[in-house]
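Format notes (please read before filing issues)

Several people have asked whether sequences and structure tokens are stored in separate files. They are not. Every record keeps both together, in the order shown below: the sequence lines, then the token lines. Line labels are part of the format and must not be stripped during preprocessing.
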Amino acid sequence: MQLLVFGDCHDARPLARALEAAGVTGVLYEDVNDPHGVALLTVTQDPNEFVERVRRLLNSDPFASLTQKPDFTTLLNMVDEPLATLAPERTRPGRDVLTRLMEAHL
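Then the structure lines:
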């Protein structure tokens, strides 16, 4: 996932159309705290997509005319196996660890 935040957007509709036309998987948010702010959250399993498709989208109109807010930009490191999909035996501590914890706190 990548979150990019921009200012100087007076109409988000052309951005939404460009996002859809580019075939980039993502969502466009209008900033409630900035009447001219928007955020683009893109999602992909392939990190190359950020360089190939998302970069191309950002360097073309209407995104190219926006002012990026780098303080809010982040690339969220996604793992191959999300924690929610792991089996409980892979996420729970073993009985010996629980026993030591209980003994240390009683």
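For reference, the curators noted about this record: The chain has a mean pLDDT of 89. The chain has one domain: 2-79.
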